[in-house]
């Protein structure tokens, strides 16, 4: 990876605005070709991508293909094929709320590119989190500055080399570097910023965007809880939760962070986690080539320090190999207030917290949020607030599903498995509150980079129908234009029945 010279950055910004102004990125054919070039770039260089990500993260090639590279080839192709539909002008002439006389005014909505976009990506899923935004920006018809994470420098170097070979260099530029470079990037005016990363940096990005009134998509993280119904099959729950946890060594925004279990099921759940771990790693996880390492020593030491400071009981794992930056999948049973419940773990620790029953589990999760529910205020942990990106619930009890849906808030609510929402490309993905805002994947990413430009074509021969709007205002004009709504019959309603038919 070569850091982009600081004085190049304003020039990159200016050139991307200039290219946009030529409308070169508008034709659907241009966009479709660029999208398919992304697919070609990934396919023709798949081994180099897997090797670079292995060099950065020690991520097994299988995980790179399954959770990053193949998805992006697939989504680039789908985007190219579906683009004409997404970009089509929507005719609202037959909209049920349109008064009959406005039909002739030709109300239309055109998804229109916002301009020069900035995508800022993190290190933990370097490929998917840089390419997904790139696909959305190009599909939308924007020009793009892609700021890659400096943490995964092998991956960044590869993309820095490949993007100019595959994509239109007038329209897509890569910027590499750390805080000085990104600070310079953020001084420039962009027409949309799509940021994935942590909430602290998100505030810096949002403040910089505010100076230019730039709209934002913020894809953030947080502590994603798991609730385990004691009636659920413990063996299945343990295997599925552990699989979500070990993926990328827990360095995932949707990683199950902590599990709420009832005292009656703790032992069985923990035993089954051990059983699952033994079956995933028969020769131990520390030497397994099916297990990722911690990205760098800073993150290794962060997890090590958490394990040193917890007052909880280690029920599984805890071993580490500092030289290799590897930490075993680890399960710790804690009490409220433990350091492991403070902030997003982003590592291979699954924290267990016992709750009296399922109602108490909902109350615990909701107590972290600003919801007006009758919680035990004493359980409120002031260091944590707001809504998680994902809430996982293992239950086949429909009433419990409904209760959890009603009593909690989260970006995604997933029943009986972990992580699989990332594979369902028709679901909008994103957070709420502290876990971010905006939605992505396919058409939803396209929507981030476009705005709905509305058009009307008022016929020239309707003056006789609209003349009452012109001054001088008269009592007659008021009677015709304003009085009817003031006298309209408002439908009956009640808090219990809503709109009474
Ligand atoms: P990171 O350190 O790679 O940072 C992300 C980006 O922010 C990088 O491009 C980096 O250059 C930039 N950056 C860093 N410091 C900056 C500063 N001071 N000013 C401006 N920009 C700066 O990645 P990270 O933030 O450690 O990523 C992990 C976090 O991202 C976790 O919280 C995780 O939950 C979240 N995440 C969310 C999603 C999602 O889709 N919701 C996906 C992956 C990760």
UniProtKB/TrEMBL annotation:
Q: What are the UniProt keywords, alphabetically?
A: Oxidoreductase
- What's any one GO cellular component for it? cytoplasm
* Active-site residue list: 219, 253
Q: Entry's Pfam families?
A: Aldedh (PF00171)
User: Which Gene3D superfamilies did the record assign?
Assistant: Aldehyde Dehydrogenase, Chain A, domain 1, Aldehyde Dehydrogenase, Chain A, domain 2
GO MF terms held by the record:
aldehyde dehydrogenase (NAD+) activity
So what family is this one in? Answer: Belongs to the aldehyde dehydrogenase family.
Name the UniProt record assigns to this protein: Aldehyde dehydrogenase
**From which source organism is this entry?**
Lentinula guzmanii
